[in-house]
Design a protein that fits this description.
The chain is an alpha/beta fold. The chain is built from 16 helices and eleven strands. The protein is globular and about 65 Å long.
């Protein structure tokens, strides 16, 4: 009987202790902790405003100056471009172009280790691009975001129009060729641009550094392979019910995902787990202190047509324009099949980087891309990140990404400058 009373007292005490900790965590304004255990105990935790800040406030919070530009693409989309100007009048311009379901915020959300700030500290003139449809580039001269025609674009337009217009702005402003650093979708758009306008790109881009280039996306290890047959059906549903926009930034779906994914580690890891099943699993690179920040900033708008285009490339393993089907292809391309992008025509020297644990842009995908580039395009070769399981998303949010990737990029550019 005494043992039962002691056990009951212990369980009640433990329940009160647990409830107290959970309640404290719920009402605490602290949103990040240095360890995963801290999220339950509220120890070694603090409030990091980066979770809700937009690009201008992120840049100023870390004591950098900021300039904003708005440009118009040939097909009348308005794009907002951010610039962290160099304190060195001879600082070389670098354009950072983001990946899928993201914006330029992704280059600024892991504090002083963020690529945008690392390059600024090295004296580079940092430009941050934003693709059409994202929170910073969501206007059109004639169309509204709620118009289906607004979302009628794939990664073809992102490269042919968005990247071209952004590169042109940088060249007109600085009178220097830019260093282009594209991540994932940003790398794809860079290859579209440099293959569509090889002479122009050669004149305006010094080098193209591709982090996890998904140009020849390969999904045999990714859970995405199971969804490939259904993207066309999803496209029809999204076109009917959401005018072609797959995600709406701060819309009901994103708000629901955030309610499920925060604030505790089991929630954070569950949501990250779905991302890892698609893009690569690497528990070693999960950072408890930045994970709530990076997950919160994920989920920007994208057109379903862009995602379908990526799935088409994954299925065909050919870098081609959007496939509308035989009948429409004949009208649009005068061919029953979509034409290939001519990667061999690229004159800008490339430097390709991949992680060994990447499920969509790993060794096979990157070397397949490398082989299709021209001799000049292959000039700087391929670099494997020195980590046994470095995954696709680790290029943006990995715990050691600065040491493994960004410092290496800085060293590569330093050697390039002194060559």
């Amino acid at each position: 009987m005494i043992k039962r009373k002691k056990l009951a007292s212990f369980l009640i005490g433990f329940a009160i202790f647990s409830l107290t900790n959970v309640t404290a965590a719920l009402i605490s304004p602290k949103n990040v902790c240095k360890t995963f255990e801290g999220y339950y105990t509220n120890r070694d935790c603090y409030y990091n405003p980066d979770q809700v800040l937009e690009v201008p406030d992120l840049v100023r919070r870390y004591n950098y100056s900021l300039e904003e530009y708005e440009i118009t693409t040939p097909d009348d989309y308005f794009l907002k471009i951010f610039r962290i100007p160099s304190k060195d009048p001879n600082g070389e311009p670098v354009l950072l172009q983001h990946g899928v379901l993201a914006s330029s915020e992704n280059f600024l959300i892991i504090g002083n280790s963020s690529l945008g700030f690392v390059l600024a500290n090295e004296g580079y003139d940092v430009w941050l691009g934003n693709f059409r449809g994202t929170r910073y580039s969501n206007k059109h001269r004639y169309l509204r975001k709620s118009d289906r025609e607004y979302w009628n674009f794939s990664f073809d337009e992102l490269g042919s129009f968005d990247v071209q217009s952004t590169i042109d702005l940088i060249h007109r402003t600085t009178k220097q060729p830019a260093i282009y650093i594209g991540y994932s979708l940003g790398a794809i758009a860079g290859h579209v641009y440099s293959s569509a306008y090889p002479d122009e790109a050669e004149n305006k881009v010094k080098v193209m550094i591709s982090m996890a280039p998904a140009t020849l996306i390969e999904t045999s290890k990714s859970i995405l392979r199971f969804f490939r047959p259904y993207w066309n059906l999803l496209q029809r549903l999204v076109n009917v019910h959401n005018h072609g926009e797959l995600f709406t930034r701060d819309g009901p779906l994103i708000k629901y995902i955030r309610s499920v994914c925060f604030p505790y580690p089991h929630q954070l890891k569950m949501c990250l787990g779905f991302i890892q099943l698609a893009f690569g699993i690497n528990e070693d690179q999960i950072n408890p202190e930045t994970l709530p920040i990076t997950l919160y900033h994920d989920g920007d708008s994208i057109s379903i047509k862009t995602v379908v285009h990526l799935s088409q490339v994954a299925m065909s393993r050919k870098f081609h324009k959007f496939d509308y089907g035989m009948d429409v292809n004949l009208r649009v391309y005068n061919s029953s099949t979509p034409p290939l992008y001519n990667l061999n025509s690229i004159k800008v020297p490339n430097y390709l980087m991949y992680g060994r644990g990447d499920f969509v842009a790993g060794k096979k995908a990157v070397f397949d891309l490398y082989k299709q580039l021209s001799k000049r395009g292959r000039k700087y070769g391929v670099y494997a990140i020195k980590h046994p399981s470095f995954a696709h998303t680790d290029f943006m949010i990995g715990k050691d990404v600065k040491e493994l990737v960004y410092d290496h990029i800085v060293e590569f550019l330093r050697k390039l400058k002194n060559h």
